[in-house]
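Worked example

This section walks through a single chain of length 240. The input is the sequence exactly as stored; nothing has been trimmed or padded.
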Amino acid sequence: MMFTTSWDDGYADDTIIADLLEKYGCTGTFYICPKQQHGNVMLRTEQVRAISIRHEMGAHTIEHPHLTQVTKEVARSEIVRSKEWVEQQTGKPCTLFCYPYGDTNEQVAHLVQEAGFAGARTVEQFAFQSDGPFYLPTSLHVFPFPLRPVLNRRCVDPLRRAKPHLQRLNIPLYKWRGWLPLAKALFTHAYETNQPWFHLWGHSAEVKKMRMEHVLDVFLQFVSTHKDVEHAPNSAVLHA
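Given that input, the structure is written out below as tokens.
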């Protein structure tokens, strides 16, 4: 089984994630965007280049729009220019794309393919294989679980969205008590059922804000104890 990770937006904290991945022999695909997100510090060009030596870099548009909510011409420009921008930043070909907000449809996916990308990632979770290279899903988001840390109805969103998938996968109820036990249970399920891959994704700024550095470290250490797990970038799992 392959283990892959991906990290969105291009925050300066990606450097911390890159170091943590390397600590356990893991690798990542970093989908970067030049637009500042949520007031966070973004990666500088020299940081992008340093990460690209050790990890894979992908495009994530220029302005981070909902691609299904803009005109076809704007969507095409965002996609094409982001590929060019990443290649200028890294000095390497950029073959992967990530849809902002996971927002895509047949037209957007076609534009991504037309721009010369080999594949594109969504934000779908609880998957261990893909229906196609331009609809690459993920297995788990690095985000507080079972409750979102807000004081409104949205606090139950993580549990509400995950529940049908966890029931489908027969993940024991006691594993739902926190992100780390859930992550271990999902990885174990994928490993023991010989799935093609396990795909962890997140945002480095969120990991820091939600104080999840420790549980992420523990989970990566847990993954590293398993034999016959190949650590691979997103490009390696497109056709797995």
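What to look for: The longest helix spans residues 72-90.
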